[in-house]
Every structure is written in structure tokens, then in C-alpha cells.
Amino acid sequence: MYSVGVILLELFHPFWTEMERNDILTSLSKGIIPKPFETQWPVQSKYVKLLTSIDCELRPSADQMLKCELFSEKENVIEDLQQKVLSLEEENERLKKSLELLQEQMSSRVGIESPV
């Protein structure tokens, strides 16, 4: 069940580098969840905490998880996934704009550095 908790975190929390992923997963093993994840995904955060509990007796069973609020209402799952898609689309647009800005900066540098 611990692995299910890790996968749940990975589904909803992007990792930008392998080092960041390692740091977050190491912290998770100590019961620490990233604040942005807790803020944006409070229900998922609750279950990540339960599933990755240091005391394995506190971890819910697969049957308990299937009956929990994450899966009990199809609308919750769909709404959460739609919110995740929107979040990723916004991040994608932000990254595209950053890339365009960097390309413009590189182009202007090339124009300045090359002799006319």
C-alpha cells in the first residue's frame, strides 16, 4: 500500500528533476508531504499520508481504499483529473512562453554578437 501512496503523489505532483523527486520521496518516507501538494490536493494528500504511514498497521487496505472518498464517487475522480489536466495545460503554456522568451533573447544576442 506504501507504493500506492507514492504513485498517488506522483500522479498529482510534478517533479522537475530527479533530485527533486528523490528529495520529496525521501521526505515522504519520514511523513513529510510537499506543502504545494497538500494545498492543491487536500483529499489526495490525506490518503498519501495514510498510505505512506511509517506504521504499516495504520495504512488502509486495498478494500478500504476502494471504498474511500477518492473512488466512492465517479464525479470526484473525474473532477480531480480534469483539474489536473487544466493545471498541466497552464504549466505547459507558461513553459511555452518562457521558451519563446529565451529564444528571442538568444536571437537578439546572436544578432548583436555577429558582425554586420
From TrEMBL:
**Which Gene3D superfamilies does this UniProt record tie to the protein?**
Transferase(Phosphotransferase) domain 1
**Keyword Transferase attached:** no
Which segments does the entry list as coiled coil? 71-108
The reply to whether Ribonucleoprotein figures as a keyword in the UniProt entry is: no
UniProt keyword terms in alphabetical order: Coiled coil
Q: What's this protein's name?
A: Protein kinase domain-containing protein
Q: Which organism is it from?
A: Pyxicephalus adspersus (African bullfrog)
